[in-house]
Amino acid sequence: MVLIYVDGLIITGSNADSIAALKKKLQGKFPVKDLGPLKYFLGIEVATSRKGLFLNQQKYTIDLLRDSNMLNSKPANTPFDSKLQLDKLGDPLDSPNYYQKLVGKLIYLTITRPDISFAVSLVSQYMHAPTVVHLCMVKRILRYLKKTIGRGIVMRRNGHTDIIGFSDSDWAGNTIDRRSTTGYCMFVGGNLVSWKSKKQPVVARSSAEAEYRAMAAESCEMVWLKNLLTDLGFSPTSPMKLFCDNQAAMHIAANPVFHERTKHIEVDCHFIRQQVQSKVIQTHYIRSSDQLADAFTKVLSSTVFHRLMFKLGSIDPLAPA
């Protein structure tokens, strides 16, 4: 069932019927040119197959590599080297415009590329004063894109609309200011629809606090998405599941008592506690080795990185089996 609201008219029905009714309604308002099924939109390519919809930005990636003169570069297996040192200094660039332009294009590429989200989040933190080392990090990402030009996200029909989230953090992972990195991803109906990698605004005093802040950020996203689906007529019936690999953070979310170990945490972080008590969200423990959000918080080895990308639904159809 599809529900579309246009100018006071609610259109319901099957896929084809609803789209046809929508087109007819729009044509009555202003001239409309029907270009047929969606194939390309704002740099995003949409392909259909037996497995479902495949979203990618292959043409955008090729143009990016061509503009940066990296089309003939040596491919890399991962966006970052597993031995990356963030505290390494370098000579400042004469003009940061080139660096800022590349990073800006990479940010747009993360729309269908969760595999580079952490890497792009990291290099975007140095936009104001990039160095030669930072430019090398960007070129490493471009070399990885050279090897995975056709990578994208697969959307399948799995017969349900359950919302499942994974949250994680890398406690004091930034060796420069010792701030932690929040990473989370969210699935709706078994398909990856939302992900994020962002440095936390404050220094966490413990790994439990860092994980708790990541859970709070993920819970806000989950509640927003549930409200959106409800407005569209697809309200999930079962409680949303949030997976975390830190049991201490889960206990803080379930415990309504404030004590010495939690009184320094801002009140807005306790939003998840309200959702857990209201049974809107259920927290579940997951082993660190199975934590999908690891890909958004830290630099991983090639084997672990590609295993997580496969589980997230980020695939490259051009890669050998």
Shape annotation: globular
Task: Tell me the major beta sheet.
Answer: 5 strands, antiparallel
**Helix percent band:** 25-40%
Run of helices and strands: EEHEEEHHHHEEEEHEHHEHE
Q: For the terminal residues, how far apart are their CA atoms?
A: 36 Å
Organism: Vitis vinifera
Domain Reverse transcriptase Ty1/copia-type: 2-80
Protein name: Reverse transcriptase Ty1/copia-type domain-containing protein
Provide a descriptive summary of the structure in words.
- The protein contains 9 helices and 12 strands.
- It has helices at 15-27, 58-67, 97-109, 117-123, 132-147, 207-231, 247-254, 271-277, 302-312, and strands at residues 2-6, 9-13, 40-41, 44-49, 52-56, 152-155, 163-170, 181-188, 191-199, 240-244, 281-285, 314-315.
- The strands form 3 sheets. A 5-stranded antiparallel β-sheet has the order 3-4-5-6-12. A 5-stranded mixed β-sheet has the order 9-8-7-10-11.
- Strand 8 (181-188) and strand 9 (191-199) form a beta hairpin.
- The chain starts with a strand and ends in a 6-residue tail after the last strand.
